[in-house]
Design brief:
With 193 residues, the protein is an alpha/beta fold. It contains seven helices and five strands. Helix 1 links the parallel strand 1 and strand 2.
């Protein structure tokens, strides 16, 4: 479910919007009354939508946009006369006064769009550097030699360990390499004694 940050300078406005969204089934994770609070909340999340007013006491919406990671989107709720007829590019805008159903429908579309983009990104193959590819290959070769695995088995073993431990393939390969080399070195020193 898409995480939503509600950000309005007036606490009453922020609370009202939050209540509307929560009653409509959205996951509101934070309510902010300053731009600084919004920036802090974004650091703790890996994506979402900011439903924002135009002005805060410490900054304008465009200052938040400047620091907003690409995993976030903004739904700006403001009076059209704020823009002098020119709507801002790259964000979704709704005019004040806002109609509840329009807000809910717009946010649903934004959530669906964001979910779709996340799925497409997950389907794209991971781009690894040459060094990372060599690490994974080295870990597979060590597994193949030590455990008499085929290359496909070693690859699947690395994938499973990666998923089970919650680390990426490169980190898992590094762990496997250090474990196997550590066992080989420990075994070698025992034989020498």
């Amino acid at each position: 479910m898409t995480k939503i940050i509600v950000a309005f300078s007036k606490p009453g406005d922020a609370k009202n919007i939050k209540n509307i969204l929560m009653r409509s089934g959205f996951q509101v994770v934070a309510v902010c009354t300053s731009g600084g609070q919004v920036l802090t909340c974004m650091e703790d999340l890996n994506g979402g939508i900011i439903v924002s007013g135009y002005r805060f006491e410490d900054m304008l919406y465009r200052d938040i946009l400047e620091y907003m990671p690409k995993e976030f989107e903004m739904l700006l709720v403001a009076s059209p006369n704020r823009f002098g007829g020119m709507m801002p590019q790259g964000i979704v805008c709704l005019p004040m006064p806002i109609k509840v159903q329009v807000l809910v429908d717009t946010l649903e579309e934004m959530c669906e769009s964001q979910t779709s983009r996340k799925k497409k990104r997950k389907k794209q193959p991971v781009q690894r550097s040459e060094e990372e590819t060599k690490l994974i290959l080295e870990a597979k070769e060590l597994l193949m030699e030590r455990n008499r695995m085929a290359e496909l088995e070693a690859h699947r073993y690395l994938q499973k360990c990666s998923m089970d431990s919650g680390t990426n393939m490169v980190e898992t390969a590094q762990m496997v390499i250090s474990l196997i080399r550590g066992q080989n070195n420990a075994g070698g020193t025992r034989e020498e004694k």
